[in-house]
# Entry
Amino acid sequence: MRLEVEVLDTEEEVGRRAAQLVADELAAGRLGAFGVATGSSPAQVYASLAAGRLPGWDGVEVFALDEYVGLPPGHPQSYAAVIDREVRAPLGLDPGRVHVPDGAAEDLTGACDAYERALEERGGVDVQLLGIGATGHIGFNEPGSPFDSRTRVVDLTERTVADNARFFASADDVPRRAVTQGIGTIARARRHVLIALGAAKAAVVRAALEGEVSEECPASALRTFEDVLVLLDPGAASQLTRRPASRRSPAGAR
Ligand code: F6R
# Structure
């Protein structure tokens, strides 16, 4: 089991570091399936990967962590639309290789089971990008989510709804439910990269890395995973009491 924490000077450097790890896996022919997160944290990773114009994306399957329930198909803030804009189009991926849980299905349980099966058939993802919510969620696994949970429909906490209101006209427009890969589903990825940016994440980053490993902080489950890299900017790292390894830009400049 390996969990490394690195603090980089800027959001851009965090993005480049994560993109480098993904690019190395791709170049080594080990990126059959790429697990992607939405939200602000991974934006620089995708920008950096797109700027790299790497060969070899053709055969890669992409799996999203989660999707809102109840948004009409094509809604610009549905995660299917976000991933299409931020990942698929910039990397030039075939839409048929991009998988997002179906939050608009009539039979949501069936859609969750189908998503879990698709992941299983693929043998799980090779590299999973993760953000962390203020509640400690990974994917949309809010506090109390069992560590062996699978893809399922969940209720979002009021805190998560409030945090995600920035993507919608108002908090009233944010869906209250989502389909998310479970923690047990996420755990099956071969490698995980968690990204947290900004001082607003400092308390939850500390809880996840230094607090109890408990369902009350779903991201603490990372400490039970096989191979985890946590990438932080100085704000997100500011409440850690144990000093993690730091990296700087190649020039070493601050
Ligand atoms: C999104 C997801 C969430 C976000 C988390 C942090 O697919 O799975 O867990 O990663 O809410 O969001 P940001 O990065 O916007 O702070």
Notes: The two ends are 32 Å apart (CA to CA). The pocket of fructose -6-phosphate is lined by residues 37-41, 65-66, 131-133, 137-139 (CB under 6 Å). The mean pLDDT is 95. The chain has seven helices and eleven strands.
